[in-house]
Design brief:
Length: 343
């Protein structure tokens, strides 16, 4: 006799499984609604938590030599001074350089300067890119001009970050109480290696590539070098296609503003810098903090943007990497326990 046919998936879906799926969907929908309703509060406290977590690295290093309270004071006020100095020295300069670049390209498009390349540049839809840059620069100027209107938000953010840094161990202990006991150690390890490791590594990579690009652009005689180097660093933060998108964007801008000779030199230099970063810097900085499929990566980006906007874009990748690392650890544990059970 032939074996009976296996039941289909629809036959296996009993009432209990359907109820669990409905509850999962309802919880997900409620979470999206709560994030949307309390978005500003969540954004402030999440940003403060990330700042405190990143500042905790130098605090831990200093705590080897001095008391933790003194280390927190030194690191926190040093970070505030550095941030104010960077914004004061570079913030307006970046905006003005970007505005100058947009004006230069717009003027060149209206004259005969780009006549041999006009059809090619038109096919690349340069006008839309210029409109995007113009919108971002106007927003940047608005932020710079109205910074005092947000001074209380910045003060609250700094104060919350400071208290989170001081009470970091207690807050971390209370947070772990929400995780089942058998999974706490794995969650703590995965969170520190994947989530915090990715954020720290991404900031270091952005700093490296922006600084290196700025120096190379100065050597090559590229105009608006500071603005273009910042564009490279920001776009490179997008996993997967960030490096390619950065090279294409700055090449198009330099081609329209300074001609094809400088553009070719910039392409060659940018590719060399990208190879140095990918083969030498990134493995040491990132380690295995981000080991997820590109398809999952882009899916996480789109879902994060849809659920939490800009905050979701920045947090979706480390969260996806953390989930992937968790699943890999579970799979490895199952593979290791299988031979023992068979014995």
């Amino acid at each position: 006799m032939s074996p009976p046919p296996k039941p289909s998936i629809w036959q296996n879906l009993n009432l209990l499984i359907l109820l669990r799926l409905l509850l999962l969907f309802a919880c997900g929908w409620a979470l999206v609604v709560l994030i949307s309703y309390f978005y500003n509060v969540i954004a402030i406290f999440t940003t403060a938590a990330i700042i405190a977590a990143l500042l905790n690295y130098p605090v831990q290093w200093l705590s080897r030599y001095i008391k933790r309270g003194l280390a927190i004071t030194i690191v926190f006020f040093s970070a505030v001074v550095i941030l104010i100095a960077v914004v004061t020295a570079l913030g307006l300069e970046v905006i003005y350089q970007g505005q100058g670049l947009v004006d230069r390209i717009t003027q060149a498009l209206k004259t005969q300067d780009l006549l041999p390349l006009k059809e090619f540049i038109g096919n690349l839809n340069l006008e839309k890119l210029l409109q995007t840059l113009q919108t971002g620069l106007v927003s940047g100027l608005g932020i710079a001009q109205n910074i005092f209107s947000s001074v209380f938000t910045l003060i609250f953010l700094a104060v919350i970050s400071l208290y989170m840094l001081i009470d970091g161990e207690k807050l971390w202990f209370y947070s772990l109480q929400l995780v089942p006991v058998k999974s706490r150690d794995r969650f703590a390890t995965t969170f520190q290696c994947s989530f915090l490791g990715f954020l720290r590594g991404q900031l270091l990579l952005m700093l490296f590539l922006s600084t290196a690009s700025f120096l190379v652009f100065l050597i090559l005689g590229v105009n608006y070098a500071l603005f273009l180097a910042l564009v490279v660093g920001i776009l490179d933060a997008i996993p997967g296609i960030g490096a390619t998108l950065a090279v294409l964007t700055i090449t198009l801008l330099i081609l329209a503003s300074q001609g094809w000779v400088i553009a070719v030199e910039v392409v060659i230099a940018s590719i060399i810098l990208q190879q140095i970063q990918d083969n030498f810097v990134s493995p040491k900085v990132m380690g295995n903090a981000l080991e997820i499929s590109p398809v999952i990566l882009f899916l996480a980006l789109f879902i994060g943007e849809r659920v939490a906007g800009l905050l979701g874009v920045f947090l979706s990748i480390p969260i996806a990497g953390m989930i992937a690392a968790w699943l890999r650890a579970e799979n490895l544990e199952e593979q290791q326990s299988a031979p023992k059970e068979s014995q």
